[in-house]
Amino acid sequence: MNCKVAGLIIAICCLAAPVLAEEALVTRERVRLNLAGAELIVAAAKTQAASMKLNVNIAIVDDGGHLLAFARMDNARPASAGTALTKAVAAATTRVATGPVRRGDAEPDLLLNLSLQNAAAAGGTKMTSLLGGVPIVVDGQVIGAVGVGGGTGEQDAEVAKAGIDKLLTELARQKQ
Known about the structure:
By secondary structure, the chain is an alpha+beta fold. It contains 5 helices and 4 strands; from the N terminus they run ααββααββα. The protein has helices spanning 2-22, 35-51, 79-94, 110-122, 153-175, and strands at 57-62, 67-72, 133-138, 141-149.
């Protein structure tokens, strides 16, 4: 009986081996944000913030939430530096823009938002329900995120999107 079980296991492994061999073992053709792209985003975001008469902190992270570039404009609140980084990390790692979490169509649930932030902090990661963290999507892939702190949430998101728009415009120009 043990020989039959061993034979069955060997047969299953032999049948599965070709399937396993055909699966990709690494991800290829992956777009990655580099320092030059991050610095372009920072420059465009600073220009947008200045046009809005804002002094903000701007954080750019890669798709894993690791800092690539950071700028604190003159007279920006130092306390907003940490907020900008948290927004960027949260947007990159959750793959969506930051903002209040809602239950369905209802108004944002304050207790739920605080609970999520506390759970994230307890787990050693960053999460926020503040607006101003925006993922950078290129060719359908989230390659990083921008976090801005210093204005209202809506202003922060507008500054972040201006930086991302500049990157996307430049990438489109380079493809031509």
